[in-house]
Specification:
88 residues, mainly alpha, two-stranded antiparallel ribbon, 4 helices
């Protein structure tokens, strides 16, 4: 099964959040719904990241720590707690 670029991005974000080096196939079998949610969030995050809009001189303020490939609260709720790395 070929992994799409969007799936690879989502898996990389999840690996980074969980501090793990599991195989990509494991994420697609056990956390496929989380991968799908991250991909969906990346497609719809354009307007949800806006904190405020001013029309006089056109000012837009975005939320801190937000972006298309951000682990949001809905994604965190579907994942286990991140693993602590004791050795680097």
């Amino acid at each position: 099964m070929e992994i799409s670029i969007e799936q690879k991005k989502a898996i990389a974000v999840i690996k980074n959040y969980l501090n793990v080096e599991w195989e990509d196939s494991y994420f697609l079998s056990e956390y496929d719904f989380v991968v799908d949610q991250l991909i969906q969030n990346s497609k719809t995050s354009k307007s949800s990241d806006i904190k405020s809009i001013s029309e006089g001189n056109q000012s837009i303020t975005y939320k801190d720590n937000s972006g298309p490939w951000t682990i949001t609260d809905d994604v965190k709720a579907m994942l286990p707690k991140p693993y602590i790395k004791l050795f680097y």
